[in-house]
Structures are given as structure tokens and as C-alpha cells.
Specification:
- This protein has 3 domains: 85 residues, Arc Repressor Mutant, subunit A (Orthogonal Bundle), CATH 1.10.10.10; 108 residues, D-Maltodextrin-Binding Protein, domain 2 (3-Layer(aba) Sandwich), CATH 3.40.190.10; 94 residues, Periplasmic binding protein-like II (D-Maltodextrin-Binding Protein, domain 2, 3-Layer(aba) Sandwich).
- It has 9 helices and 13 strands.
- A hairpin with a 4-residue loop joins β1 and β2.
- α1 crosses α2.
- It is of the alpha/beta class.
- The chain has a 6-stranded mixed β-sheet with strand order 4-3-5-12-6-13, with helices on both faces. A 3-stranded antiparallel β-sheet has the order 10-7-11. A two-stranded antiparallel ribbon has the order 1-2.
- It starts with a helix and ends with a strand.
- The relative contact order is 0.14.
Length: 304
């Protein structure tokens, strides 16, 4: 039995006229009659009574009609569901992110994506950049938000969001009363820095920036994630150069000040494994790019 048998049967059951049903189905009336006889043979029951002037459903035909309608409706729903899954509109997506992304770009993307694709289940996992690269390669996450650089050749990426660096100071610090702080004033300060592995992108950027002003940062403590960095600043153990969005972490013991000199921006990259091109990744990336454009951020790099 094929679905066309059900469609033929329902057309005849609705019109109770083989000629009109054949016209509706755009097939010849003898062919339709043959298909209905074949269906009755397959089922092993007579579905219609036929006379020269009248066609009527049998009791078996009435029962079969109810189930045939349900089968075609379920088939239609199944087809629609399959298309939506194939297009990426239904499914699951596992997302890795560095903690600092949760203060800036990531919430905007998640909100926009959920509004457009509410049937995609999102799983979020906070992890540092190197761990994200490994997890993307191993398939434990599908897409990541991480800080540059990305050195794994199997990982494709694009810069999706950029923001300025600012200075985090203990509230009682001598520089806390200034509206702008110069990098030259930081040469003797103690720094709270991300560890080399977990925050290598930040650490390299900040170290390079300090060298550009003639000094190497004196590292008093290493800490991660960003909440711990700000906590140590609040404890008076040092200062830190952090992305602008981090000032959403508010503590009475910490003040944030813009830097007088222009530094390279803190960039968040969208990353995925080069071999992973299924549609949910594609539509998530499209939403992220659209959010980036609406926020007037800069996007560059490869696209899946």
C-alpha cells in the first residue's frame, strides 16, 4: 500500500463519484477504479458499494476513511518536521564560551536566536579558548565564542565582536580619582592577569600593549575566570586591564577607568570545526552576524 492509494481513496470517499474524483486527481477514471480495486485487495475488505447510479462507503470504508485521514495528516506533519530539522530550525546546539563573552556579545546573540528559532535546544558550556578548540575538534561542542588567537588549523573562525580595553582599579587606588589613566602610569603597578593557558589571548595582548609603552607588566596574581580577576582587584592585590563589557561586574571596591591611549581591541571570535557544516550551525552563525551588524561591530574571517 502506498500513500497515493490513500489519496485516491479519500478523493472518491469525499465525492462519492469516480468520474469527479478522477478529474480532481488528474487521472483517467478507469485507472482510478483499478487503483481502488487494488487497494481493496490489499486490505482484504470492500470499501465502496457500487451501482450504475450510486457509490457509497461500506462500514469498512467508513472505518478506513478515518484512519486514512490520520495517516496522511501524520505523514504531512512528519515531512514538515523533517524539513525543519534538515534546515536547522529544530535540533540541539552545544555552545562553548569564554566567561567574558557572557558580559558582552553572547547574551544578545542567544536572545535573538531563541526568538527566531525557539525549537532549537541550546546547551551552554563555559570553557577557555584552548579547551574550546579541543572540544570543537572532538565534537563535544558545536560552536564556540572565544578570544583570539585561534591556532588550531582544524578550527574555522571569524571575529564577530570587538570592544575596547579599560582599567580596573581598587576603589582606593591613587589613580581611581582620574577620569583617564595613561598607560605610562602603570609601569610600577602590580597586575592581576589571566593564566598563560586559559587566557593566553588576553595575556599576550596586554603584555604586548605594555611593552609598547616601555615596560613589562609586573604580575602579582594569576586568576580566571573574569569574576575572580575583578575580585582580586577589589581585594587590593593589583590592577587589571580588562574588556570594556567587564564593568558590568559591579563591586564597591572596584572602579573602572578608560585608558588615555588607544589599545588594540579585545576581540571575540565565533569558531567551529571546518568539517561541521550542518544547518543549525549555519543559521546560528547567520544570527550572530546579524546581531554583530546591528551592534555596529566588525566581522572578518572565514564563514561556514
Amino acid at each position: 500500500m502506498e500513500l497515493r492509494h490513500l489519496r485516491y481513496f479519500l478523493s472518491v470517499a469525499e465525492t462519492l463519484n469516480f468520474s469527479r474524483a478522477a478529474e480532481r486527481l488528474h487521472i483517467a477514471q478507469p485507472a482510478l477504479s483499478k487503483q481502488i480495486r487494488n487497494l481493496e485487495e490489499l486490505i482484504g475488505a470492500q470499501l465502496f458499494t457500487r451501482s450504475k447510479h450510486q457509490v457509497a462507503l461500506t462500514r469498512a470504508g467508513e472505518a478506513f476513511r478515518e484512519q486514512a485521514i490520520l495517516i496522511l495528516e501524520q505523514t504531512k506533519r512528519a515531512s514538515h518536521l523533517a524539513r525543519r530539522v534538515d534546515s536547522g530550525e529544530i535540533g540541539r546546539l552545544s555552545i562553548g564560551f569564554v566567561g567574558s563573552a557572557s558580559y558582552s556579545f553572547l547574551p544578545w546573540v542567544l536572545r535573538a536566536f531563541h526568538q527566531q528559532y525557539p525549537d532549537v535546544e541550546l546547551t551552554l558550556r563555559e570553557m577557555d579558548g584552548p579547551t574550546q578548540a579541543i572540544s570543537l575538534r572532538d565534537g563535544r561542542i558545536d560552536i564556540g565564542f572565544l578570544r583570539l588567537p585561534v591556532t588550531d588549523k582544524d578550527i574555522a573562525f571569524e571575529t564577530i565582536f570587538q570592544e575596547r580595553f579599560i582599567l580596573a582599579l581598587p576603589s582606593g587606588h591613587r589613580l581611581a580619582t582620574q577620569d583617564l589613566v595613561s598607560m605610562y602610569d602603570l609601569s610600577e603597578e602590580q597586575f592581576i592577569m589571566f593564566p598563560e593557558r586559559g587566557g593566553s589571548g588576553f595575556r599576550i595582548q596586554i603584555t604586548d600593549a605594555c611593552q609598547g609603552f616601555g615596560f613589562l607588566p609586573r604580575i602579582a596574581q594569576e586568576a580566571a575566570p573574569m569574576q575572580n580577576v575583578i575580585g582580586l582587584v577589589g581585594a587590593g592585590l593589583g590592577i587589571s586591564i580588562v574588556p570594556e563589557s567587564v564593568q558590568k561586574i559591579q563591586m564597591p571596591e572596584v572602579v573602572y577607568r578608560p585608558l588615555l591611549e588607544e589599545l588594540p581591541t579585545a576581540a571575540i571570535a565565533l569558531a567551529w570545526h571546518k568539517k561541521d557544516t550542518f544547518n543549525t550551525i549555519r543559521i546560528f552563525s547567520d544570527v550572530a552576524r546579524e546581531v554583530a551588524r546591528s551592534r555596529s561591530t566588525t566581522s572578518a574571517g572565514n564563514q561556514p
